[in-house]
Amino acid sequence: MSSFPTYFEAFDYQQMLTDYPLGDDMLSRFQGMSRDVLHVLQNQRFMQVVDRAWQIPFYQRIWGNAGVTPDDIRSLDDIEKLPLISKSDIMESVENFPPIGDFHGLDNLPKDQRPPIVFHTTSGTTGTPQPLLFGPKSREVQSLLVARSYRFMGLKPASTIQSCYGHGMINGGHYIREAVTHYTNSMFLSAGTGVETRSSQQVSLMKTFGVNVLVGFVDYIKRLADVAREEGIEPGKDINIDMIIGHFGMESRESITKAWGNAELFDWYGVGDTGTIAAEGPDHNGMYVWEDAHYLEILDADSNQPVPEGGTGNMVVTCLFKDDVYPIIRFNTHDITQTLTNEAELDLPFKRIRGFMGRSDNMVKLRGINIYPQGIGPILAERPEFLGEFICEANRDDSGRDEMLVKAEVSTIAASRDSLISYYEAILKRKIGIAVAVELVGEGELTPFTQVDIRQKPIRLIDKRFD
Question: Could you report how far apart the first and last alpha carbons of the chain are, in Å?
Fold first, then answer.
């Protein structure tokens, strides 16, 4: 008979709970801790991850090509000697070593010693889906950090949580379910997207089972409030949501909290490869980076050099816990954020970030101005008739000049929309520093383009410049 470790035999579960505390234990461990003490912890975990990475062909190749040797990396202070990696490097590994690449470190392990693997893919919204592999330890730390975030935000004991994250091959819905069921005492409803569970059925589930927490992408969560009213169900009365935990980025919070009867909103950030990186706290003063588990660099999108404190740039993350399967060291997410420098109330040693502000690889540069499509919605929210849905269309004219058209849904009747366009154009010029065209449409007209009803992440940019 074959012999191999089972899931929880593959790592020290009790030690993981000690190393990565949550709830009151997290606050007891970290409140009052100095940045210097935190750095010592980070350094220890970083060197363990680097040692593991040197055993893997993927890193041997990339670091070797950059002229880096093991002796060059003696501490976390040497991290800038290592080259950045990104999704393109992972996908090149998959192409050259199909079907799952050589970045995970499984190939040099005898089959009877390989740990159980959790396998998912990315959604493929920016191209071919990327394989995602997790060992038992790193999978459980990822799940624990989600639950740590929820409990930090103030999740009530024995809550009922409904998740609008997708399932299938993508990671989101699965590891959120694992987080809630493994590390909280909440009841979990895995409703998924509108494709998996009809929107009308989703709001019926909320009412029937007394859901008080909604988690997912906020574009769809906002849409569900409209569906509830269409079904004769009043949020705040028939459905009492006290927390919405989503990914707000630059979205307008006021419209979402009002739509759900003044629910309290919490933001968090992570990517499929790394899991949860940062979470908004009960003080609503930015998102705290879980720096015991991640080392986050904010680098200029053009030069890849560190930005000054308070600066804006790409988030580059090193997972300090992934010393089993698929170590992640200096992974460029291409997601833009800003570090916060104002004083925090919670006396935690962790740096804080503003949150997701857009993607540097989804940026449109018009006449020297960088425009992030995700940031357009909150700008338009100044107007009371704006309904929250929008899409940007980038075009290039015959002379080679780039232009942008912003289409937005409004509640105003068709005959009166043209009279409002100048107001919208003025707001955008004032906020982004450049003139763009605006087209106003009615509610739901952009859904075929944004696909907000079927996608976890709605489309915000149609780039026609290279057609």
Answer: 58
pLDDT (tens digit per residue) in 67-87 = 999 999 999 999 999 999 999
Q: What does pLDDT average to over the chain?
A: 93
- Locate the domains of the chain by residue range: 363-464
Q: In what order do the strands lie in the sheet with 287-289?
A: 187-189, 160-163, 213-215, 243-246, 264-271, 275-280, 287-289, 352-353
CB atoms within 10 A of CB 51: 13
The DSSP string of 362-374 is G-EEETTEEE-GG
- Please say if the pLDDT value at position 453 is more than 80: no
pTM of the model: 0.84
Give the tens place of pLDDT for each residue, 190-204: 999 888 999 999 999
- Report the alpha-carbon distance of residue 430 to residue 438 in Å, rounded: 14
Architecture of the 363-464 domain: 2-Layer Sandwich (3.30)
Strands 386-396 and 402-410: antiparallel
Alpha-carbon distances of 113 from 1, 64, 106, 388, rounded to whole Å: 14, 27, 10, 52
Nearby residues of 426 by Cβ (< 8 Å), 6 or more positions away: none
